[in-house]
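Record 1 of the preview.
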Amino acid sequence: MSIISRQIVAGAVLTATLGAAPALAQNWDMPTPYGDGIFHTQNIMQFADDVREATDGELDITVHSANSLFGHAEIKDAVRQGLVPIGEILLSRLSNEDPIFGVDSIPFLASNYEEAEALWDASRPAVEEKLAAQGLTVLYAVPWPGQSLYLREEVTDPAQLEGLSFRAYNVATERLAELLGATPTQVEEGDIPTAFSTGRVEAMITSPSTGANAKAWDFVSHYIDTQAWLPKNIVLVNSAAFDRLSEERQATVMELAAQAEDRGWDMSKAETEEKIAELVEGGMQVSQPSDALSARLAEVGETMTAEWLEAAGDEGQAVIDAYREN
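->
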């Protein structure tokens, strides 16, 4: 089905939904980019089940996983334009609209779950305000496991990273490699094993999930648990669709969204532990960064935070100040 056809179908569904009387059952289609086996999707499915049960079927959310209804790049605008009432995206994909949306992807600003939660608490009001201006209401956000270093040899001195060919996949990872003295090399996720086996890259930073799924032990031997950043997925609802729910239903959805956020953070932590265990089982050596490496990574984080603040201005500074006051 073409994008236009999908938009027509989804728009017709939403029009029928929004035009229905409040007492009638409402059916919400919810696109997400990720497959059914991903913990984010499993959490969403539980949220949908909870909403259906709590509303006695008056609000029925149908989850369309794995880009089956809209592609990742289309989901936010589909929700904003009212083609579907609700959807999930990676928040930092919106950073080209406004730097605030990318604050959770600044390397080494928030490098564990406690810090990531504090950063979300500090940035959520600004994120909600900016999305509200586009007719979008934030329901909840859940992080991916933290991004960590994969290497072909043990690294304890940051100087060992200098000159290494470092996998990059966006502007931020290119800049990270440069600041570490490494050479950024563009490699897509599917090409990682070949890039390592042929010597195109010698190091990368990614989540334990990606590493375990790619069987990283086949081409690297060391995993340093830096948790450089914990990017979040965010669930958004069209504000007009949400406002058409009764106040009681709105309160129910928000309560269940809060539960989904708490549950999702716990699922993310469990995912981290499980995938690191898979790396160990595969034969990789897992370690914490040395004091010297931690200090250098912190310096890189300060530099990239300062560069982000140049773009984010006073709003960004307010977020960072609120985060660091906690």
